[in-house]
Amino acid sequence: MVLPAQVRRITPDKLWLMTSACTPTLETIQTGALLRRARERAGLTQEQLADKLGCTQPALSQAEAGGASLSIATLQRFADALGCDLDVRLVSRDQALSHGQPAMLRPRRGARR
Fold first, then answer.
1. CA separation for the pair 103, 112 (Å, rounded)
2. What is the pLDDT of residues 45-67, one digit of tens each?
3. Under a CB-based contact definition with an 8 Å cutoff, are residues 30 and 101 in contact?
4. Strands 68-70 and 84-88
5. Closest CA to 17 of 77, 86, 104
6. How big is the chain by its Cα radius of gyration, in Å?
7. Which CATH number fits domain 19-107: 3.30.70.980, 3.40.50.1100, 2.60.120.560, 1.10.260.40?
8. pLDDT tens per residue, range 67-100
9. 57: which residues sit within 8 A by CB, 6+ positions away?
10. Mean pLDDT, range 29-50, rounded to an integer
11. Dist. CA 113–CA 99, nearest whole Å
12. What is residue 42's DSSP assignment?
């Protein structure tokens, strides 16, 4: 019996939380850079964050390089692991490209750095 993706068990060697590998686009590269900056601000290595997320360091590296299309649920897992709040605005692709990033990670109030 094959289970739906939401019910599958996350194993350390698989990044089910992430989704699908993709050819990097401007959007996925911007998202990856946002994640990398948030990880660096949190003072974590890729290995440490991957451990918190339950994935491998290569999978995290792929996401930071823009080679993964991430769901909002996955972005929320990143935010939780980094002690950040996730702010997402739903905008058209054209508006996002012309007016900056449609998502942002910001430190939680009262969170220690």
1. 22
2. 999 999 999 899 999 999 999 98
3. yes
4. unpaired
5. 77
6. 14
7. 1.10.260.40
8. 888 888 889 999 999 998 888 777 676 766 666 5
9. 46, 47, 50
10. 94
11. 29
12. T
* Domain ranges within the chain, ordered by starting residue: 19-107
Residue 40, pLDDT score = 96
How far apart are the C-alpha atoms of 47 and 12, rounded to whole Å? 12
Q: Where are the alpha helices (DSSP H) in the chain?
A: 26-41, 46-53, 57-64, 72-82, 93-99
- Token duo for residue 86: 């996730």
Contact 103, 88 (CB under 8 A): yes
109/48 Cα distance (integer angstroms) = 23
Query: Distance (Å, rounded) from C-alpha 60 to C-alpha 46?
Result: 7
Structure tokens at 58: 């290569």
- In whole angstroms, give the CA distance from residue 39 to residue 1: 38
